[in-house]
Amino acid sequence: MMTKTRWVGKPLKRKEDPRLIQGLAHYVDDLALPGLRYAAIVRSPHAHARILGIRFAAALESPGVVAVLTGEDIRGKLGMVPVAADLPELKVPPHPPLALDKVRYVGEPVAVVVGDSRYRARDAAELVEVDYEPLPAVTNPEKALEKNSPLVHEQFKTNQACLWKLEGGFPDKAFKQAHRIVRQRFTNQRLIPVAMEPRGVVAQYDAGEELLTVWSSTQIPHLLRTQIAAMLGVPEMRVRVIAPEVGGGFGSKLNVYGEEALVAHLAMKLGRPVKWIESRRENFLSTIHGRDQINEVEVAVKRDGTLLALRCRIVADLGAYHQLLTPAIPTLTGLLLLGAYKIPAVKIEYVGVFTNKMATDAYRGAGRPEATFLIERMMDLVAMELKQDPAEIRLKNFPQPKDFPYATPTGVIYDSGDYAAALKKALAQVGYKKLRQEQKRLWKQGRYLGVGLSSYVEICAMGPSSQMPAGGWESATVRIEPTGKVTVLTGSSPHGQGQETSFAQLVAEELGLTPDDVIVIHGDTKAVPYGIGTFGSRATAVGGTAVYLSLQKLKQKLTRMAAHLLGVAPEQVVIGEGELFVKGKPRQAKKFLEVVQAAYVAKTLPPGFEPGLEATSFFEPSNFTFPFGTHVCVVEVERETGDVHIRRYVAVDDCGRVINPLLVDGQVHGGIVQSIGQALFEEAVYDENGQLVTGELMDYAIPRAWDVPRFETSRTVTPSPVNPMGVKGVGEAGTIGATPAVVNAVVDALRPLGIRDIAMPLKRERLWELFQKKRAR
Amino acid sequence: MKIQGNQTITAPREKVFRVLVDPQAIARLLPGCEELEPAGADTYDVKLKLGIAALSGSYQGTVKLAEQRPPERLRLEVTSRGPWGFADGAGTLELEEKKGKTLVHYAGEVKVGGMIASIGQRLLEGAARLVIGQFFKNLEKEASA
Q: For the CA atoms of A122, A124, A127, A132, what is the dihedral angle to 10 degrees?
């Protein structure tokens, strides 16, 4: 690994930022093409209804309208929206891009209107009349499992989509032997990802070239190309997908949506480029939601606080249809449910349920925030019931550094870690003992201070292909151009994570250049070799490693070429800053550019040396990586208003080796904010008729700047053995680690009220009511 | 959303009832009603222009006089759909004789869907009160004429 650190580990400002903050970046909606048409989608206002007929003559006659399509027009012509998740006995209902015969959630696309302007298309869409026969809807996943429930998909005769079980060790025996069993029911409420840029698609078909180009705000351009080609029946090499600037995804764009194929289909059918831009309200209704699990957890403990076993039943509300990974997400909850603790036995049952709601799928953390919330809440409950300190109970149950690689009874192997070091560092930084004293003092004054811990571990760098639905490797091509500048083509598809900077730092470090000598190209299937994309905190640990491996190949070529020019053996050549020189003889050197040009002009080459300087690597990781850390949240809850003031937030994260600490901090900050959102504010609410009543930002509260404190971030560094750079990934650490820290802090603050648990989100009215009830008693 | 309340109309019960089941009058009673055409037994197709803030627009629907027990009880079923979704309602009107005047007790439920539900919930109660108030004002005018 790197011994020098000229660039790696340095807090470089992002190369992406100048264009982003100056409004020079190009998003899908910025695309202007001659003859562009605009699509507007007619969506179902019913959660469950039969479509009796669709009248669209008035829409078709509306000024500027060129086409109206309904489900009947695409029946048999456009493939189903794909699901890649693979679970035993998974029920997969047909999921057409436009509803056929029935609608099953509010917001389901029913028809599409194409016009010569966005406004005319939208106006005409309002003229489409759909006759519905409303059917009873089911929105509560537990009720959906009852015998007399309405069925979302009649053909299955049940709303149970899947049943997944996991058992390790001897859980039932452990529960018999336990001194104490701690039980709690939790809800990981449904969340809406709310990326700043909603979805958007532009498609153009070149009939001469027979080439379909699709611009989409996506995290997975290559996977999308494969799936669009399949849905349209077009050969894959005739499809080009471009992910331009993407304004946030958080997993909501790690998907293949019906609209992506539909807009492509329209462009081919009409012979005109077609644009569809999702409105914010559509985004709330019809872009995937996250979380939505009901969890019954019980842990068996010894009197001294040693954990013996954990059992959990997960009822996951999958919504009406599967999106790409919908039913797979809760399995990640299962795999991570033992958290950062040595628990020898586990038994998990996950029931996936169809309801008349939008599909859930990967939302930042994807199954792991749920797991961390459950285990970290349970750790606090165990501490409470045994009257132990929450920090002590955690320290007692961590695996020790010598235990790594640590195989959990859920079947994953934690790569490396020193969990106690992170916890102790966090406690020291926050001044834990003093805080506990202050808490006692304030309680006596009728003030409610709380300290919440979360010692998380997460599953990142997704992942070994054996564990992934569609390959878990990543590709990278590094090309040193004849002028000595470097082009990196990555199969990762960064959309805010900053790899244009961090990969440039890697290149600069390895080749003795500066990051300004490097450009990182991504998100265009015509330019970049097949890649898997950006999600699951994988871009650096998997995609970055592919870059690193290509750099090693190039370094070998460079040193061979330099050795040839210098008349020495390749082993004697060292790469310096802007030059290559003979080890121990820095004056015997060739400029980097000179070596590069020699490789290109190819007048004299070492034997068997291929001209040019380009290398491609596909990195297949042997395991996931397991970042970890401890977050400490200090809150004061206002008795009169129920307001939660976050006084301090200390985050000690370990994501292995760090390439750019600024990027790491940025990722942690954003993640914590979204976690605070889940803990205190956010909740997607459907009423019993299946209407989304939190349909816009007036009703769906996301944290604002004044809701979040100044974060105190720091790190421990435990390199991962899974990849040569020792990096782990940090894209989701904040959302995985922080939610339970906030909730634990609030529950801790309210201990004098005799509170054991409070359902998320911990809204001020909910907390205010708790104070009122206490007062009334 | 449940709706409940009562309203006094300064006209005898029989007169009030007659107005309530007279198609010509209904067209004048329903706020924003632009058209009312018979469509089967005791059922009428209606065109309504409703104004609930951002959800204003033309709505099409049906009105059904589902149950008639002159002069004391009437059940109304209304469906409507428009650019922002749908609003369906069903309710009963009970007419009580009160010294030559009529006390109308009303109770019903309104179901909304689409944008009306997702963004209009918090406007809904106010809007419903407004529509109901308008309805009774019209009824007063028709019945006392």
A: -60
CATH number of the domain where residue B50 is located: 3.30.530.20
Q: Are residues A422 and A518 in the same domain?
A: no
Q: Is B113 on the interface with A (CB under 8 A)?
A: yes
Task: Please report whether residue A304 resides in a domain.
Answer: no
Those residues with Cβ within 8 angstroms of residue B34's Cβ, 6 or more apart along the chain or in another chain: B47, B48, B49, B58
Q: Which of B60, B81, B118 sits opposite A693 (nearest CB)?
A: B118
Q: Look up residue A311 and give its DSSP letter.
A: E
Interface contact A692-B121, CB threshold 8 A? no
Contact A231, A79 (CB under 8 A): yes
Q: pLDDT band at B123, cuts 50/70/90? A: confident
Please check whether residues A42 and A123 belong to one and the same domain: yes
A473 touches chain B (CB under 8 A): no
Cα separations in angstroms, B112 against A695, B22, B120, B145: 13, 27, 9, 34
Report the mean per-residue pLDDT for chain A: 97
Residues on chain B touching A689 (C-beta within 8 angstroms): 111, 113, 117
Instruction: Check residue A2 and give its pLDDT.
Output: 43
Range of the domain at B30: 2-143
Q: Enumerate residues 80 to 119 of chain A having a beta carbon within 8 A of any beta carbon in chain B.
A: 106
Residues of B in contact with A695 (CB under 8 A): 115, 117-119
Number of domains in chain A: 3
Domain tally, chain B: 1
Q: Is the pTM of this model over 0.90?
A: yes
A530 Cβ neighbours under 8 A, 6+ residues apart: A222, A475, A491
Residues of A in contact with B83 (CB under 8 A): 126
pLDDT exceeds 60 at position A1: no
A559 plus A639 within the same structural domain = no
Same domain membership, residue A608 and residue A750 = no
| Closest Cα in chain A to B60 | A129
CATH code, domain carrying A583: 3.30.365.10
What pLDDT does residue B56 have?
A: 77
- Regarding whether A615 and A510 lie in a shared domain, the answer is yes
Q: Provide the residue range defining the domain that includes A246.
A: 31-135+194-286
Using 50, 70 and 90 to split pLDDT, how confident is the model at A5?
A: confident
Q: Does B124 touch chain A (CB under 8 A)?
A: no
Local confidence band at B126 (pLDDT 50, 70, 90 cut-offs): confident
State the Cα torsion A382-A388-A392-A396 to the nearest 10°: -60
pLDDT at position A776 over 80: no
Q: Do A695 and B86 touch (CB under 8 A)?
A: no
State whether residue A769 sits within 8 Å of chain B by CB: no
| Residue-level pLDDT at B87 | 86
pLDDT value at A4 more than 70 = no
Residue A371 lies in a domain: no
